[in-house]
Amino acid sequence: MNFYNLLLERKRGRIVDYIENLSKTIIFIEDNLTNKITIEQISKQSGYSKFHFQRLFHQVVGETVAQYIMNRRLTEAAKKLVSDTTSIIDVAFEFGYDSHEVFTRAFKRRFKVSPYQFRQIRITTEYLYKKPINTQYLTNKNFNLLDDIEEVSFENMLLSGYQTANGSREEILSSWSKLRGNITAIDERDFNAYGVIQYPDTFGLEIDFTYLAAVKSVHLKNHNDPDLKSVSLPNSKYIVFSHRGSTKDLPLSYEYIYGVWLSKSKYVVSSSYDFERYHSFADRSNPVIEICIPVQKV
């Protein structure tokens, strides 16, 4: 058993530090729902860099820091609209919105009705609300989805496919569907497919990542599709994690990689992207997905 797999074996008996660190950021956010806060202030609570923290938060929570804060603020604003008679504009100002119009647009996106309608109907259904992250739930998650871990080097790869700037599962699946319609192989298992996640070089509260469902361009039948996007991945050293399970469980593996493994390893992330490699494009019965993180030794 190599060092990486031994480290993985020991993870069950270890106190997972990242949960405690994320708990600190959650408390900080909850304490400042009515205050202006920056990504620097939030990431400082976790002890991680902005780059590392943004990735970790997104994979654990399933939304960006900005989305989480917005939905928590809108939830508390909605509760206030129902519980007392504070004017709508004062509620908007209290939770960081500069105008009635901006607050109303955000509120309608979240609750499908205006703040005025929400107050009139007096909606109190709990499932509509965004609750604070339950860290006990995170603690109870298991990480049995990851298998082998190895260090490899990949040469430059030119990949082409369909991109989404929306991190929702529906949009990502739509990109894969478009890609499937533009491949040449009769047997899709003859080649690899890639899910490339690209992060910005600078961060605000919003991470603005993109997801590219791609293959090497030789496997495309229509190279002139205007919706096609291409990315060139440079020569690099990677740590490759083998994820056994469905794509729906990928966030659990990312959670472990960014929350535990990297912080305990002798590596740091070296580039503003990572990618998933699918060896069998068509076979989803027992998939093994390789999560490839570009790294350098510290």
Automatic annotation (TrEMBL):
Keywords: DNA-binding, Transcription, Transcription regulation. InterPro entries: AraC_E-bd, GyrI-like, Homeodomain-like_sf, HTH_AraC, HTH_AraC-typ_CS, MarA-like, Reg_factor_effector_dom_sf, Tscrpt_reg_AraC-type_HTH. Residues 23-121 form the HTH araC/xylS-type domain. SMART domains: AraC_E_bind (SM00871), HTH_ARAC (SM00342). One of its GO terms (molecular function) is DNA-binding transcription factor activity. It holds the Pfam family HTH_18. This is Helix-turn-helix domain-containing protein. It comes from Chengkuizengella marina. The lineage of its organism: Bacteria, Bacillati, Bacillota, Bacilli, Bacillales.
